[in-house]
Amino acid sequence: MKAKIVLLLFAVLILGELQAQQRPTKPPAMPDINALMKMTPEEREKYAEQMKKQLTEQAADMSKEMNIAFDPSSMPGYNFTPPVKDLKKLAVIPVTPPSRQQLLSQVSKMEISLKKIAPSTVVQQVEQFSASKSIKEIQQASVGTWYGGEPQAALLLNMKAVQKQPNDGLAWNNLASQLSLTKMEEQAIPILQNLLEENPNSSVVLNNLGQAFLSLGELNRANQYLQRCLEIDDLHPEANRSMGMLKLYAKDLAAAARHFEKEMLVAHRRSSLAQLRKAVEGKKLNLNALRKKKMQLDGVDKRNFFEEIKLGEFELPELPKKSDETVNWTRQHADYFQSIQQEMLFWAQAGKLSEKELVAEGKKHHGIYFDLVDILLSELGDEYSDLLGLITEDESNHLMNLTTAYYKTINEIKCPEPPVGHSVSGPTFEAYQRKCCDMKKPITDKYVNEYNGFISARYQVVNARWKEYINAMISIVQLDPSAGNKLMVYRAVSAYFTFLMSSAQAVMLTAPPMECEMTSLTAEEADELLKTSNRAYEIKCPSWLKANFSVSVAKIKADCESFSVEADVYKLISVGMQKKFSTGTSTLYVGASLSGKLAQNVLSGSVSQQFYIVFDNNNEFADLGMRGSGGFNIANGMFGETISYDFSMNNGFNGNWVAASDWVKKLESAMGFIAK
To answer: Tell me, what's the pLDDT at 634?
Structure first.
């Protein structure tokens, strides 16, 4: 309520300043702020209505004095009251329609009277022109002089036209319309009644009769003629406007709104818009729906501005449906991403005005559709503001749940592993990766397809809304193409490219599982490799199958797990080979070892070092490395330590250190314990 009071005070000050500049009229008295603050809400509303009425009346007075076109019905304080019935003029209207001859006689009398008051130059020009011109040329000249601000010349020309061609109904109708507009309705009505007898279903004549009787305050007869007109042409703009006014006078606001809406389907007028807003009593208008219907009637509803400015060429590329397609998607469409970014920046900068241009624009008078465009754009923004985002909050939660479920499923997958105690490498390792890949990749592909399918569907829906929004905005702005309205269009197009960027960024680009990148084997090749590799694991070996013996040049060891041959060269360098049955791997090694004792076994020790190469079950290179061990004993094994290590290319470094005491082990063994 305080805001309303401030606005009223501002309006009073502005009106007072304008009056002071134009004429020495005393401005309205400044309201007492303290008194306003003490008023009840009801008293303030009443006071506000009084102020609006007073300011409207003063604005009307000023417009008359300064010869400014002004429609008081569009002002907030204007009260609609029906015209007073003009009994004097109504009394001279004949009860029965006159004949055409009687009308010609009356026109002749009016012509003589009009010539007496019109400037002689006007009379002379009309006589000269009508004497040599056709009836059509005279009618066209009458219309031109009327809109040129010469009503006397227009009337004289139309009188010449009907006298020259008495059977021309159009000429008679034009004369009647001009008589009504010059407040001579009592002369127009007999002409229209005569025309109606000849053509009882003429919506034009019925409307003109309704308008004439409405101006004279004869509301019942006006209603009858206007209603008959609308039965023939329900979208007649003038008839609907006047019927709307009749309904406003009768306080039937709903019916008034229906008639004003029909008028707006054909013609947009600021005063009709103001009356429509009053008729709906603060309810939200839907002028955009009315405008769409009007565009359909005008046959211009199918114009596609979106395509005309080439926005349709920036369609989002097809989204990846499998994880294989995600890897190169961004790179493949790099030019597209660059182009939409450039377009976004271009439209964001387009239409900016310099300071000088802004000043000049501010001085321009609002166009006749300024109010209508303002409401249409406001309604358009309200309609689409919540519809142009790619993802709603609920949809974002859906995608988050989708992602959470995917990672949970992936993490729960147990990939096949080689038997415990057996290491694999080379193609066998790849085979296990392939098996794991085959388990995970379908889940990843399903996730990518479902996620991007959802994004794609949302993009199609929202992109269509953007198209409707931009088309509607440009269509509206065409009514009032001010710099500010054009700038609004440019910003909307820039926002569209922002939408395209956000859509591209929303694409799920999850790559195939890591295991898929670590193998080039097919599923069939992996199955065959694992089948060969697993044969050794399935052999049931008896525990008694062991061999350990020496020959002159080598030592041979064999059991269920492995077979090895080792030879010493000069008792310093050892060369050997080991074959593991379970994995099929073969190891070749070469190394050296030393051992010694001091002081009759008081201190003893040994050191060995080997370089080895591993081949898999297909006899292909698999790994290489170094391994070694060392240890010592004190006092025949009472105390000792053993250290070993293994460092390979594939498995990295492994080390082990053990502190040992032989007499403790022997004691525990004797007592039946197992040392841990």
So the answer is: 63
